[in-house]
Amino acid sequence: MEALMSDLVKEMRLALDEVKHDELNDVFADDSDEEMKQAIETAAQQLLLQAPPQMLQPKRVVASLNESGKQDYDAIQTQYTDGHGSLVIPDDWLRLVELRLKSWSSSLVALMDPGSKEAQMQASRWTRGTPQKPKGMITVSPTTGKRVLMYWTAGRYSANHDTPTNKVYDHEVELFTYLPYQKVKDVLEKDGKTVTDQKIILALTDECKKYLIYRAISIFLISKKESELGEKYNQLSQI
Q: The organism sits in which domain of life (predicted)?
Protein backbone atom coordinates (compact mmCIF):
# COMPACT_ATOMS: atom_id res chain seq x y z
CA MET A 1 0.00 0.00 0.00
CA GLU A 2 1.22 3.47 -0.91
CA ALA A 3 -0.40 6.80 -0.06
CA LEU A 4 0.55 10.47 -0.10
CA MET A 5 0.92 11.92 3.38
CA SER A 6 -1.05 15.01 2.34
CA ASP A 7 -3.98 12.84 1.24
CA LEU A 8 -3.96 10.89 4.51
CA VAL A 9 -3.88 14.08 6.58
CA LYS A 10 -6.77 15.45 4.51
CA GLU A 11 -8.81 12.30 5.15
CA MET A 12 -8.02 12.49 8.87
CA ARG A 13 -9.32 16.05 8.97
CA LEU A 14 -12.47 15.12 7.03
CA ALA A 15 -13.20 12.30 9.47
CA LEU A 16 -12.66 14.60 12.44
CA ASP A 17 -14.94 17.25 10.92
CA GLU A 18 -17.83 14.82 11.29
CA VAL A 19 -17.45 14.67 15.07
CA LYS A 20 -15.89 18.06 15.77
CA HIS A 21 -17.12 19.98 18.79
CA ASP A 22 -16.03 23.29 20.31
CA GLU A 23 -13.44 21.73 22.63
CA LEU A 24 -11.94 19.73 19.76
CA ASN A 25 -11.10 22.93 17.88
CA ASP A 26 -8.38 23.54 20.45
CA VAL A 27 -6.39 20.47 19.38
CA PHE A 28 -5.64 21.94 15.95
CA ALA A 29 -2.57 24.15 15.96
CA ASP A 30 -0.25 25.44 13.28
CA ASP A 31 1.83 22.27 13.53
CA SER A 32 -1.13 19.86 13.51
CA ASP A 33 -0.25 18.52 10.05
CA GLU A 34 3.21 17.46 11.23
CA GLU A 35 1.75 15.85 14.34
CA MET A 36 -0.74 13.99 12.18
CA LYS A 37 2.06 12.72 9.94
CA GLN A 38 3.88 11.42 13.01
CA ALA A 39 0.66 9.71 14.11
CA ILE A 40 0.37 8.10 10.66
CA GLU A 41 3.86 6.61 10.94
CA THR A 42 3.16 5.25 14.42
CA ALA A 43 -0.19 3.85 13.26
CA ALA A 44 1.47 2.19 10.25
CA GLN A 45 3.92 0.29 12.45
CA GLN A 46 1.17 -0.82 14.83
CA LEU A 47 -0.93 -2.17 11.96
CA LEU A 48 2.04 -3.97 10.43
CA LEU A 49 2.54 -5.79 13.72
CA GLN A 50 -1.14 -6.63 14.19
CA ALA A 51 -2.52 -7.28 10.70
CA PRO A 52 -3.76 -10.82 9.94
CA PRO A 53 -2.13 -12.91 7.17
CA GLN A 54 -4.78 -12.12 4.54
CA MET A 55 -3.92 -8.41 4.73
CA LEU A 56 -0.16 -8.80 4.44
CA GLN A 57 2.03 -8.32 1.37
CA PRO A 58 5.13 -10.18 2.57
CA LYS A 59 8.59 -9.61 1.19
CA ARG A 60 10.95 -12.49 0.45
CA VAL A 61 14.29 -12.42 2.24
CA VAL A 62 16.80 -12.11 -0.60
CA ALA A 63 20.22 -13.72 -0.31
CA SER A 64 21.75 -14.78 -3.62
CA LEU A 65 20.77 -16.97 -6.56
CA ASN A 66 22.28 -20.37 -7.23
CA GLU A 67 22.95 -21.89 -10.66
CA SER A 68 19.34 -23.02 -11.04
CA GLY A 69 18.02 -19.53 -10.28
CA LYS A 70 16.72 -20.33 -6.80
CA GLN A 71 17.53 -18.41 -3.63
CA ASP A 72 20.73 -19.67 -2.01
CA TYR A 73 20.78 -18.87 1.70
CA ASP A 74 24.22 -20.31 2.47
CA ALA A 75 25.76 -16.84 2.82
CA ILE A 76 23.35 -15.84 5.60
CA GLN A 77 22.78 -19.23 7.24
CA THR A 78 24.66 -20.95 10.06
CA GLN A 79 24.01 -24.65 10.64
CA TYR A 80 24.82 -26.26 13.99
CA THR A 81 25.62 -29.92 14.59
CA ASP A 82 22.68 -30.44 16.95
CA GLY A 83 20.19 -29.46 14.23
CA HIS A 84 19.37 -25.87 15.10
CA GLY A 85 20.41 -23.01 12.86
CA SER A 86 20.24 -19.28 12.24
CA LEU A 87 19.56 -16.90 9.35
CA VAL A 88 20.70 -13.28 9.20
CA ILE A 89 17.68 -10.99 8.90
CA PRO A 90 17.46 -7.81 6.77
CA ASP A 91 18.05 -4.37 8.32
CA ASP A 92 14.43 -3.36 7.67
CA TRP A 93 12.99 -6.46 9.37
CA LEU A 94 9.88 -5.81 11.47
CA ARG A 95 8.00 -9.10 11.62
CA LEU A 96 8.27 -12.71 10.47
CA VAL A 97 5.63 -13.89 8.03
CA GLU A 98 6.87 -17.42 7.32
CA LEU A 99 9.99 -19.57 7.50
CA ARG A 100 9.79 -23.05 6.02
CA LEU A 101 12.61 -25.55 5.75
CA LYS A 102 12.41 -28.44 3.29
CA SER A 103 12.71 -30.87 6.19
CA TRP A 104 9.82 -29.37 8.19
CA SER A 105 6.23 -30.59 8.04
CA SER A 106 4.92 -27.19 9.18
CA SER A 107 6.05 -23.57 8.86
CA LEU A 108 7.32 -21.20 11.53
CA VAL A 109 4.99 -18.18 11.60
CA ALA A 110 5.35 -16.84 15.17
CA LEU A 111 8.45 -16.20 17.26
CA MET A 112 9.30 -16.67 20.91
CA ASP A 113 10.31 -13.90 23.29
CA PRO A 114 14.08 -14.41 23.86
CA GLY A 115 13.56 -13.99 27.60
CA SER A 116 10.72 -16.48 27.87
CA LYS A 117 10.71 -19.89 29.52
CA GLU A 118 9.89 -21.35 26.10
CA ALA A 119 13.13 -19.91 24.72
CA GLN A 120 15.11 -21.40 27.61
CA MET A 121 13.61 -24.81 26.80
CA GLN A 122 15.40 -24.80 23.43
CA ALA A 123 18.64 -25.69 25.22
CA SER A 124 17.36 -29.24 25.78
CA ARG A 125 16.96 -31.74 22.96
CA TRP A 126 13.87 -33.07 24.74
CA THR A 127 11.95 -29.78 24.90
CA ARG A 128 13.18 -27.82 21.89
CA GLY A 129 11.34 -27.25 18.62
CA THR A 130 10.93 -30.12 16.18
CA PRO A 131 10.39 -30.47 12.41
CA GLN A 132 6.70 -30.94 13.25
CA LYS A 133 6.51 -27.92 15.59
CA PRO A 134 9.48 -25.64 14.87
CA LYS A 135 10.40 -22.78 17.19
CA GLY A 136 12.34 -19.59 16.57
CA MET A 137 13.35 -16.23 18.00
CA ILE A 138 15.25 -13.10 17.04
CA THR A 139 18.63 -12.77 18.73
CA VAL A 140 22.15 -11.48 18.08
CA SER A 141 24.80 -13.80 16.68
CA PRO A 142 27.64 -14.19 19.22
CA THR A 143 30.17 -14.52 16.39
CA THR A 144 29.11 -11.79 13.91
CA GLY A 145 27.08 -9.42 16.08
CA LYS A 146 24.31 -9.42 13.45
CA ARG A 147 20.62 -9.92 14.20
CA VAL A 148 19.53 -13.41 13.28
CA LEU A 149 16.48 -15.64 13.38
CA MET A 150 17.52 -18.68 15.40
CA TYR A 151 15.41 -21.77 14.72
CA TRP A 152 14.93 -25.25 16.19
CA THR A 153 15.20 -27.85 14.70
CA ALA A 154 15.98 -28.99 11.14
CA GLY A 155 14.76 -32.44 10.09
CA ARG A 156 16.94 -35.35 9.10
CA TYR A 157 18.37 -35.57 5.59
CA SER A 158 17.23 -39.14 5.04
CA ALA A 159 13.58 -38.14 4.96
CA ASN A 160 13.98 -35.79 2.00
CA HIS A 161 16.98 -36.86 -0.08
CA ASP A 162 17.60 -39.93 -2.21
CA THR A 163 21.31 -39.25 -2.65
CA PRO A 164 23.69 -40.19 0.19
CA THR A 165 25.13 -37.34 2.26
CA ASN A 166 27.43 -37.09 5.24
CA LYS A 167 25.23 -34.40 6.81
CA VAL A 168 22.69 -35.37 9.45
CA TYR A 169 20.29 -32.40 9.27
CA ASP A 170 18.67 -30.78 6.24
CA HIS A 171 18.64 -26.97 6.64
CA GLU A 172 17.53 -26.16 3.08
CA VAL A 173 15.21 -23.12 3.10
CA GLU A 174 12.09 -23.37 0.94
CA LEU A 175 10.50 -20.06 1.94
CA PHE A 176 11.59 -17.11 4.09
CA THR A 177 9.31 -14.05 4.11
CA TYR A 178 8.89 -11.04 6.39
CA LEU A 179 7.31 -7.62 6.75
CA PRO A 180 9.65 -4.63 6.51
CA TYR A 181 9.21 -1.41 8.46
CA GLN A 182 7.07 1.24 6.83
CA LYS A 183 9.01 3.67 4.64
CA VAL A 184 8.41 7.39 4.09
CA LYS A 185 9.86 8.81 0.87
CA ASP A 186 9.98 12.33 -0.52
CA VAL A 187 7.95 13.08 -3.63
CA LEU A 188 9.98 15.33 -5.93
CA GLU A 189 9.19 17.74 -8.73
CA LYS A 190 10.33 16.88 -12.25
CA ASP A 191 13.58 18.72 -11.53
CA GLY A 192 14.39 15.96 -9.04
CA LYS A 193 15.24 18.48 -6.32
CA THR A 194 12.10 20.18 -5.02
CA VAL A 195 10.13 18.17 -2.45
CA THR A 196 6.39 18.54 -3.02
CA ASP A 197 5.04 15.86 -0.69
CA GLN A 198 5.86 12.60 1.03
CA LYS A 199 4.45 9.13 0.54
CA ILE A 200 4.26 6.27 2.98
CA ILE A 201 4.84 2.70 1.81
CA LEU A 202 3.82 -0.31 3.87
CA ALA A 203 3.46 -4.00 3.09
CA LEU A 204 -0.30 -4.21 3.61
CA THR A 205 -3.23 -4.46 1.21
CA ASP A 206 -5.05 -1.31 0.09
CA GLU A 207 -7.98 -2.41 2.23
CA CYS A 208 -5.96 -1.38 5.29
CA LYS A 209 -5.97 2.31 4.35
CA LYS A 210 -9.15 3.07 6.31
CA TYR A 211 -7.75 1.31 9.37
CA LEU A 212 -4.55 3.33 9.06
CA ILE A 213 -6.53 6.59 9.03
CA TYR A 214 -8.65 5.60 12.04
CA ARG A 215 -5.62 4.44 14.02
CA ALA A 216 -3.72 7.63 13.21
CA ILE A 217 -6.71 9.73 14.34
CA SER A 218 -6.83 7.76 17.58
CA ILE A 219 -3.12 8.32 18.27
CA PHE A 220 -3.41 12.02 17.41
CA LEU A 221 -6.45 12.57 19.66
CA ILE A 222 -4.99 10.68 22.61
CA SER A 223 -1.85 12.83 22.35
CA LYS A 224 -4.18 15.84 22.67
CA LYS A 225 -5.85 14.43 25.83
CA GLU A 226 -9.01 13.54 23.89
CA SER A 227 -8.87 10.00 25.24
CA GLU A 228 -12.56 9.11 25.04
CA LEU A 229 -12.92 10.10 21.38
CA GLY A 230 -9.50 8.64 20.64
CA GLU A 231 -10.59 5.27 22.01
CA LYS A 232 -13.65 5.28 19.73
CA TYR A 233 -11.41 5.69 16.71
CA ASN A 234 -9.09 3.02 18.07
CA GLN A 235 -12.02 0.59 18.08
CA LEU A 236 -12.79 1.50 14.46
CA SER A 237 -9.18 0.76 13.55
CA GLN A 238 -9.20 -2.82 14.81
CA ILE A 239 -8.55 -5.21 11.94
A: Bacteria
Taking the C-alpha atoms of residue 30 and residue 27, their distance in angstroms, rounded to an integer, is 10
What are the C-alpha distances in Å from 30 to residues 9, 26, 33, 120?
A: 14, 11, 8, 51
Bridge partners, 184 (sequence order): 200
> In angstroms, what CA-CA distances link 61 with 34, 96, 134, 167, 180?
33, 10, 19, 25, 10
Q: How far apart are CA 92 and CA 156, in angstroms?
A: 32
Going from the C-alpha of 64 to that of each of 72, 74, 85, the distances in angstroms are 5, 9, 18
The answer to whether the CB of 198 falls within 8 A of the CB of 112 is no
At 113-157, the pLDDT tens digits run: 999 999 999 999 999 999 999 999 999 998 889 999 999 999 998
* H-type alpha helices, 65-137: 117-120
Backbone dihedral angles phi then psi of residue 5, each to the nearest 5 degrees: -60, -40
Rounded distance between C-alpha atoms, residue 26 and residue 164, angstroms: 74
Q: Round to whole Å and give the CA distance between 27 and 5.
A: 20
Task: Work out the angle between the directed axes of helices 209-223 and 227-236 (0-180°, nearest 10).
Answer: 170
DSSP H helix total and E strand total for the chain: 5, 14
Mean pLDDT along residues 53-62: 95
Q: Is the distance from CB of 148 to CB of 161 less than 8 angstroms?
A: no
pTM tops 0.90, yes or no: no
Rg (CA), the chain: 23
Contact predicate 86/141, CB 8 Å: yes
